[in-house]
Design goal:
Elements (H helix, E strand, L loop, with lengths): L29 H9 L10 H4 L44 H14 L6 H8 L10 H8 L10 H19 L3 H13 L4 H4 L24 H20 L13 H20 L9 H13 L4 H5 L1 H14 L2 H4 L10 H15 L1 H10 L5 H9 L8 H13 L4 H15 L1 H6 L2 H9 L6 H15 L1
Length: 454
């Protein structure tokens, strides 16, 4: 059998191989998936990784906070363009001619009465220039939150923001307040003096089914105690969201307010989606959305960033929810199947690298791709570069997952020389701590894979 030759355009030196630390932010299901995978045999070999290597596959642990030196004080706009210097890839902080041209194209498209979504996707997939102040609007359009008719924007936003306000009032209310309101609604008509009181109920006035010790399935207190474990998990995860960014971390009023907004969104989502609820890692997907919307130059949009983020988060997760649903892990639409598709994509475009990783060194893709896919690469690159990648992911008319798999495949191909020279231990370490790279070139390679597959 003749091995496929790697195209010359893949052997570019445009990327760096400088290692970059990365937090091992695994989903709790990762342990079960990788343990099961490590005990299975290779497609072409009966030898397991544990038999061939002195190092067993790593045992994932729940995410822990990253301990870093305190970052330098930063403005709320923490981006590659705003820093006024060269970024880690050697790019100038000043906008390029391509950025200026693309910004003008996006502005022209957004000024139309009826947005051409196909044209908008075509322009945005190349990256939305930092500092232009339009990423927030473009993302809302790409996610289907804003209608294509500009004339409907005001009414649609007003409706959604009002709806979210009601969600907060109804779903984040303390059970004591719910019980008081339930009682008040039935007694006000007969006892006006009681309604004018401070709303405190005596023990005898509390309905039996709504007592804190009630075991009834419909009791608001019973539901409250059931939700408390998930709320505690959300609170822990939110507190360790991007600990190196003042926007999310620290004791400032801004950081506290932003964390509270993330927590409210995730709690409401969990309560409205009882079949899925909250899964560890959702906070990492939520963070880029909230950051972008909170940094909108329009003050009104900033004031309603939490509401806008909630609905865009729902839209984004609607196409990714199967990766978070543990019951679907082993199905044709679950995370195992998605990772298998990545393996097949690599084999199709670079069989030599695929064979070295999965047959020779037995580095199963579950050991690294689980985090890549479920967290949309938010833990593999710095925050600004993740935002750039998301411009491309959100622009895919088929949804972000297809482009995500091509980007993941491109990530492997870009470091193929180091992978081909490595063994199980070194390759696993490299893939779990992906080196810094030129993001524009990475997306270029990923797009090439799309063209080759057509």
């Amino acid at each position: 059998m003749v091995k496929k030759r790697v195209p010359d355009w893949l052997n570019s030196s445009m990327w760096s191989s400088k290692p970059a630390p990365s937090d091992d932010h695994y989903n709790l299901r990762y342990s079960a998936i990788t343990t099961a995978t490590a005990t299975t045999t290779s497609p072409t070999s009966s030898t397991s990784p544990a038999e061939d290597h002195s190092v067993d596959p790593p045992v994932p642990v729940p995410p822990q906070p990253i301990i870093k030196d305190p970052p330098e004080p930063q403005r709320i706009q923490e981006s590659r363009v705003d820093n006024g210097a060269n970024d880690q890839n050697g790019n100038s902080g000043l906008p390029s001619a391509d950025d200026i041209s693309r910004q003008a194209q996006l502005m022209a498209e957004l000024s139309r009465k009826m947005i051409d979504i196909r044209e908008l996707r075509k322009i945005a997939c190349q990256g939305i220039p930092d500092g232009s102040g339009i990423r927030s609007t473009v993302w809302k359009l790409l996610l289907g939150y804003l209608p294509l008719d500009r004339g409907l924007w005001s009414s649609e936003l007003a409706k959604k923001r009002s709806q979210y306000k009601h969600f907060k009032e109804d779903l984040l209310m303390n059970p004591s307040e719910i019980t008081r309101r339930m009682y008040s609604s039935t007694s006000c008509d007969t006892d006006e003096s009681r309604c004018e009181s401070k709303g405190l109920l005596s023990r005898s006035e509390i309905p039996q089914g709504e007592h804190p010790l009630s075991l009834g399935k419909t009791s608001v207190w019973n539901q409250f105690f059931q939700d408390s474990e998930i709320i505690e998990q959300i609170d822990r995860d939110v507190k360790r969201t991007h600990p190196d960014m003042h926007f999310f971390s620290g004791d400032s009023q801004l950081a506290k307010s932003n964390r509270e907004a993330l927590k409210s969104i995730l709690i409401i989502f969990a309560k409205l989606n009882p079949g899925l609820r909250y899964v560890q890692g959702m906070n990492e997907i939520l963070a880029p959305l909230f950051y972008v919307f909170k940094n909108d130059p329009d003050e009104i949009n900033v004031a309603f960033a939490e509401a806008d983020t909630f609905f865009c988060f729902v839209e984004l997760l609607s196409g990714l929810r199967d990766n978070f649903c543990q019951q679907l892990d082993n199905s044709v639409v679950g995370i195992r199947s998605t990772i298998t598709r990545l393996s097949q994509l690599l084999r199709e475009h670079d069989e030599e690298l695929w064979r070295h990783l999965e047959v020779t060194t037995k580095v199963n893709p579950q050991f690294y791709a689980f985090r890549w896919i479920t967290l949309l690469l938010t833990q593999e690159f710095n925050f600004a570069d993740s935002i750039h990648i998301w411009d491309t992911l959100l622009s895919d008319p088929e949804g972000p997952q297809e482009t995500l798999l091509r980007v993941c495949c491109a990530m492997l191909i870009l470091i193929r020389r180091r992978l081909l020279a490595g063994d199980f231990t070194s390759n696993l370490k490299l893939l779990q701590n992906y080196p810094s790279t030129n993001i524009s070139h990475l997306l270029y390679v990923a797009n090439k894979l799309r063209v080759q597959s057509i």
